[in-house]
Amino acid sequence: MSETRLSLTTALRCQLFYAALVILWQISGKVLVALELPSPGPSPSLTIAGIAFLVAGAMVLTANRVPVIFALLALLSGYAAASTIQNAFVADPSLWPSDLARYAGVAINLVGVAAAAFSMTALAVRFRGRAATPD
Description:
By secondary structure, the chain is mostly helical. It has helices at residues 3-34, 46-62, 67-90, 99-132.
């Protein structure tokens, strides 16, 4: 396996790890609300969990076949993660049950920002390698 392909595979794994974290966070929040306990974040949503699942599936399908779509999905995911991080510092802290929960959400979304950056870097390396190779 080439070094470039390995880095794109690793970037995809990072994206899937972030999606799994988002899905677990959202579902655990809904379960806690159902048990009449405070959720770890301000608005747990099964819709967000479903969207994360669909985006992850689309990333798996497009990473090696349609890298432009993969790049757009990675950017979308990174933007959502960055927006959520900003929200943690701008929104009313009372929306979270504790500072630990708020910063745990920030940590999860930092994984998303890093995964998006790594994905874009892996794609740039992949296409730079293609551009350097004569057809």
